[in-house]
Structure to design on (131 residues):
């Protein structure tokens, strides 16, 4: 859209402004939410021999930094040996549950020790004030 204005010296000045449709911001795109399994599959795909990182990011419409951050954060996972069946992961879940129970027991023990020390300190402080 063009508009003509009279300049200070008399001749007309043409000001070019964008079309009204171009002035509005592009509609915001919703971010794709990926599950852990999807992220692992994409990372596995990017680690295959002969597959370029760029082709994987284009295929899944990801930024290259997203793929790199996923690779970094999922580095601790056994990417090649993961199985999707629930039965295959049961021994791992059992071990994790045992570990959680052990840590909860230790946490309870430490909380008890802290409370015991706190009460001893309070009693010593009270006896010092009486003197």
């Amino acid at each position: 859209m063009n508009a003509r204005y009279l300049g200070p010296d008399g001749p007309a000045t043409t000001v070019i402004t964008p079309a009204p449709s171009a002035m509005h911001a592009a509609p915001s795109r919703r971010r794709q939410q990926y599950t852990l399994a999807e992220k692992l599959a994409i990372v596995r795909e990017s680690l295959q021999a002969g597959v370029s990182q760029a082709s994987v990011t284009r295929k899944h419409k990801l930024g290259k930094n997203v793929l790199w951050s996923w690779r970094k954060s999922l580095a601790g996972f056994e990417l090649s040996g993961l199985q999707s069946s629930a039965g295959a992961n049961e021994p791992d879940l059992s071990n994790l549950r045992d570990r959680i129970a052990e840590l909860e027991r230790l946490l309870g023990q430490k909380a008890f020790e802290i409370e015991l020390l706190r009460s001893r300190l309070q009693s010593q402080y009270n006896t010092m004030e009486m003197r």
In short: The radius of gyration is 32 Å. Helices lie at 20-23, 36-47, 53-60, 64-73, 90-130.
